[in-house]
Design goal:
Blueprint (H helix, E strand, L loop, with lengths): L6 H13 L3 E8 L2 E3 L2 E3 L2 E3 L4 E14 L5 E10 L10 E7 L2 E16 L4 E9 L5
Antiparallel strand pairs: 1-4, 1-5, 1-7, 2-3, 5-6, 6-9, 7-8, 8-9
């Protein structure tokens, strides 16, 4: 038996998910520059803040098939439809609706889109308040 959600149930799930995103951040899009044939990493911050749900955890290393490792310090929940890629960063400026010393995190791996949110693994780039 397959359970199918109605459009109103999905809307309710999405609204509830976004209502629980009590943190605020600015997505920084990756866009390297090339100088003398060398690629220099660079990010451009979007002007509009987005609600996010930050979940920090003890760092763990994930071994990839090519024998390299990624460090994961937590996850971010973003509103459904948010465009973000695996080279982008997020500058988090509020936790639980309170201003904090900015915490900059980078996206690790590929974003995953669910029925009510987008979820990404993160690694701390610039420590700030991550309580």
């Amino acid at each position: 038996m397959t359970i199918r959600l109605t459009a109103s149930e999905l809307d309710w799930m999405r609204d509830t998910q976004q209502d629980t995103m009590q943190d605020l951040g600015y997505i920084q899009d990756y866009g390297p520059t090339v100088t003398d044939g060398e690629e220099i990493e660079a990010w451009t911050e979007r002007s509009d803040a987005v609600p996010v749900g930050v979940r920090m955890k003890s760092s763990e290393e994930i071994r990839k098939p090519n024998m390299t490792t990624d460090r994961i310090d937590g996850t971010l929940r973003l509103p459904l439809g948010t465009q973000i890629s695996n080279r982008d960063r997020v500058r988090i400026v509020q936790r639980y609706s309170q201003d904090i010393t900015a915490l900059v995190v980078s996206v690790v791996g590929s974003p995953r889109e669910y029925s009510s949110m987008v979820k990404v693994d993160i690694e701390i780039v610039e420590p700030g308040d991550n309580r």
